[in-house]
Structure formats: C-alpha cells, structure tokens
Amino acid sequence: MMKALVFLAPGFEEIEAMTIVDLLRRGGVEVVTAGLETPVEGSHGVKVLPDKKLEEVRVEEFDAVICPGGYPGYENLKKNQRVLEMVKEAAQRNKIVAAICGAPSVLAEAGVLKGKKGTIYPGMEAELKKAGGKPSKGLVVVDGKVITSMGPATAFAFALELLKRLAGRKKAEEVKKATLAHLGAKLR
C-alpha cells in the first residue's frame, strides 16, 4: 500500500488539506497527517487533530509528501526548517513532492523547483521564478515527481492526480466516479 504524508500548519486551507486526505484514503492510500502543533487550526477556524506530530515522521516511510496551502499555513510551512528538509529529502529520494495554492513556494524554498514547471496561486508566480522554476498556467501541473496546483477550487483535480500517481488510473477513476467528480473534473 502506498503511503502519503500531508503537512498541517496553523492556517492551512481546509478545503485543500481535507480533500487530499479524503480522496487518497478513499483510493486506498495510507495517509498520515503531521501537525506542526496539536490541534492545528485552519485558516477558517476548523481545528484538526493530526495523526502525528511532525517530529514523529520520517520521509523514508512515505511515497509522497504533500503541502496544502492556505494563509498563513504555507508561510508557516516555509518557516519550518524540518518541513523544508523533509521536502528536499523527499525530492532527493525520488518521491512525489506536491503542493497546492501558495505552498509551491515551500517547494521553491526547499530548492526542488529549479528547472521544473509548476503552478501556484495566481499572482505568486514570482515565487517560482526566483527559485528557478518555470511558471505554468495549468490547474494541475506535473513535472516528473513534482505536482503543483493553483488553489481551493483545484483541490479535487489535484487530489485525483495524486491518487492516479499513487494508486493507479483505475483507482483514481473509481474514486472520481464514486464522488461524482466525473460530472465535472477531468483526469489528464
């Protein structure tokens, strides 16, 4: 069974984080949420009890590390040296490294976007450029093992792309249909 780590920092975007966790779990991926604190309060006041504390997880245990956005969630991830080290290590180990909304700036700060295509919340493209990234306008952009997405409205497509990479196209299509996403979202 594939395993994914989702970071939760104070101010995370609830739609993004919970959509990722929910769809991956529906698809049979073991998801562990790691909080920078416990409980973690999202940007809209929703409090979530993470599965583990950040100090309790190690990159080698996972096939993917995922950074939800939200303000100031992505800023809190970017300021956390342990998160940056884990993102960098995941990329070095050729694991999936993914981020949505403002969180691709976390990947940029960790140095994993150099020469890679990516997307970010509109208006933040300079964050990608200053790290050597190549901004793209796609809702979900895949460049090798780096997957980025624009924001809350793209969370479903982002989570389905992650599920496709972790559990296969068939499983992603099953979850897409079961959640009625097939009525609007398209898998690449």
Q: Could you list some keywords that capture this structure?
A:
single chain; seven-stranded mixed sheet; 188 residues; Rossmann fold; 7 helices; alpha/beta
What does this 3D model show about the protein?
It is a single chain. The protein has 188 residues and is an alpha/beta fold. Helix content is 35%, strand content 21%. The protein has helices spanning 14-26, 73-79, 81-92, 104-109, 125-129, 155-167, 169-178, and strands at residues 3-8, 30-35, 40-41, 47-48, 52-53, 64-67, 96-100, 117-118, 134-135, 140-143, 146-149. α1 (14-26) packs parallel to α6 and α6 packs antiparallel against α7 (169-178).
In helices, the fraction of residues equals 25-40%
Q: Rg, please?
A: 15 Å
Q: Write the CATH fold name.
A: Rossmann fold
Globular, elongated, flat, extended or rod-shaped: what is the shape?
globular
H/E topology pattern: EHEEEEEHHEHEHEEEHH
Number of helices: 7
User: What's the CATH architecture?
Assistant: 3-Layer(aba) Sandwich
Q: Which CATH class applies here?
A: Alpha Beta
**Low-confidence runs:** none
Distance between the termini: 23 Å
Concise description?
By secondary structure, the chain is of the alpha/beta class. The chain has helices at residues 14-26, 73-79, 81-92, 104-109, 125-129, 155-167, 169-178, and strands at residues 3-8, 30-35, 40-41, 47-48, 52-53, 64-67, 96-100, 117-118, 134-135, 140-143, 146-149.
